[in-house]
Write a structure and sequence with these properties.
This protein has 482 residues and is of the alpha/beta class. It has helices at 15-21, 49-60, 65-75, 107-124, 140-149, 168-175, 191-201, 205-213, 226-245, 265-275, 292-299, 324-332, 335-348, 367-381, 387-403, 421-427, 435-446, 452-459, 473-480, and strands at residues 2-5, 8-14, 30-32, 86-89, 94-97, 130-136, 155-162, 182-188, 216-219, 255-260, 280-287, 301-303, 350-352, 360-364, 408-413, 466-469. The structure holds pyridoxal-5'-phosphate (PLP).
């Protein structure tokens, strides 16, 4: 399958090149040239997750076919306890738990496979250099990337997390990281500072020269890379088939997905599943108070000229949702238009466009509504959800009140509650003495066992991190990575 840039349709590359480059040279994002609907989709009912994954990805990454099966088996092994995904069905609604990987967020699903796909790509393209994976994280990407690339030949992985912005558990997960090729940096600033400095490095010729001396190529692990996006399509197809299998929906019925959204990656994967033939009635775009997407879907105006608000769902504290560009391109097929809109966004901070589809519904949750939604779900189902998932559930309730839509809806659960114990206990007015105490109290409240990954964080007293002041990222990186 060929990939084309959203800003220049004639810029065509094979999948290996698309994966290695991450972002197109014209600044656009790579998208598959075409989406062929899956033949007789219901014939896949009952197929194990890994098999379905191999089937779907072999269509997208046909030039990597020779190693794909093994890559998938290696990515999705016993690291995922009780399966890659779990569907918790409560009858009137179900929750798709995507957080049973090593770092306890849905980012593990794509970031377990990305390193394998990169390895296949560099063999295919006969690349001699090694790779530096450079990533700024608002919390979950960092740990998932560190774990995905840990101890892998030919890769070094460097993660910058903001001093100001990640949860205690998220931070702890990163500073206790093991591996002979992992580097964890604490940037004395917020996520925007970290993000913009990393972005600058990707177009810094001096930095590239220095990396060349070290025989390193630069790439990123964020959802701009198509190899991070396409593995996520699989769980939407799988969930539809599971819902059919368990009789929650019947043949011919549609399904809704409600997705807590930041960079528009996860929900774009749902849209791609729709293009593959999953009968979706509505894709519900759930935002927190950084509600640029709500505003966009309601008014056709994307406006990032505002201050970032720190919320209890930090992985969605984002004002520029990069993957929206891929949706605009898909709906318009107009690379010139997309290029101009992205230029307007960069220069003025906003643009207007009518995407002419009613597949999407968008709304947002305020802070106190998130807490209410955590309590509501607990009272109704005796089930604890994290603040990101609670944003989705709350928005779904608004949607239901407004539309009375009877379509079965799946709430996409993106993080384990154990990543945000304090935030959750606050919703119940339960006071705690310290972090371990809050983890224990969450276990009692939810009646669930504490994941070993979390317990280990408290046993591990050796931590490592490199502290960096704003503006010093390049210097520190080059001094550290020889
Ligand atoms: C990254 C993340 C999101 C947002 O996902 P996008 O693909 O950026 O829209 C939501 N919830 C959690 C827990 C995350 O880590």
């Amino acid at each position: 399958m060929d990939y084309i840039s959203t800003r220049d349709k004639n810029n065509t590359v094979n999948s290996a090149k698309a994966i290695i480059q991450g972002i197109a040279k014209d600044g656009g994002l790579f998208v598959p040239k075409e989406f062929k609907p899956l033949d007789n989709i219901v014939s896949f009912i009952g197929m194990p997750y890994n098999e379905l994954c191999k089937h779907i990805l072999s269509c997208f990454f046909d030039d990597l076919k020779y190693g794909l099966d093994e890559a998938v088996s290696r990515a999705y092994d016993e690291k995922f306890i009780d399966g890659v995904v779990r569907l918790k069905d409560f009858g009137d609604v179900s929750f798709l738990e995507l957080y049973h990987g090593v770092s306890l967020s849905f980012k593990d699903i794509a970031l377990s496979l990305l390193p394998q796909l990169l390895q296949l790509s560099i063999v295919k393209e006969n690349i001699k250099e090694n790779f530096l994976i450079l990533t700024a994280t608002s919390g979950d990407t960092g740990k998932a990337a560190l774990e995905g690339f840990k101890n892998l030949d030919r890769f070094k992985v460097a993660v910058f997390f903001p001093n100001d912005g990640v949860s205690f558990i998220q931070e702890r997960q990163m500073i206790t990281q093991e591996g002979n090729n992992t580097y964890v940096f604490r940037l004395l600033g917020n996520f925007d500072d970290a993000q913009s400095e990393v972005k600058d490095l990707f177009s810094d010729t001096e930095f590239f020269k220095e990396l060349e001396k070290r025989e390193l190529k630069l790439t990123s692990a964020n959802s701009i890379n198509i190899a991070r996006l396409l593995p996520q399509v699989v769980y939407y197809v799988y969930t539809y088939l599971e819902a059919l299998k368990m009789g929650r929906i019947s043949l011919g019925d549609c399904i809704n997905f409600c997705v807590p959204t930041g960079n528009f990656g996860n929900i774009l994967a749902a849209y791609y599943a729709y293009k593959l033939g999953v009968p979706i009635n509505k894709l519900i775009v759930a935002s927190n108070e950084n509600n640029v997407l709500t505003y966009f879907f309601k008014t056709k105006n994307y406006n990032s000229n505002r201050n970032l608000i720190k919320t209890s769902s930090p992985s969605m504290d984002i004002l520029v949702s990069s993957n929206l560009e891929r949706l605009l391109f898909d709906l318009t097929k107009d690379d010139e238009l997309v290029k101009n809109k992205m230029k307007e966004l960069k220069e003025q901070g906003y643009y207007n466009i009518d995407i002419g589809t009613d597949l999407f519904y968008a709304d947002y949750m305020k802070q106190e509504e998130v807490e209410r939604s955590i309590r509501f779900v607990f009272d109704k189902y005796n089930y604890i959800i994290d603040p990101h998932t609670a944003v989705a559930y709350g928005v779904y309730q608004k949607y239901l009140t407004e539309t009375k839509d009877p379509t079965h809806t799946v709430i996409v659960s993106t993080a384990s509650p154990y990543k945000f114990p304090k935030e959750i206990l606050k919703a119940f007015n339960i006071s705690t003495t310290d972090e371990l105490d809050s983890v224990n109290k969450l276990s009692i409240l939810s009646g669930t066992e504490i994941p070993t990954q979390i317990l280990n964080l408290f046993k591990q007293d050796k931590t490592r991190e490199i502290v960096v002041e704003k503006g010093k990222m390049k210097e520190k990186l080059l001094n550290t990575i020889k």
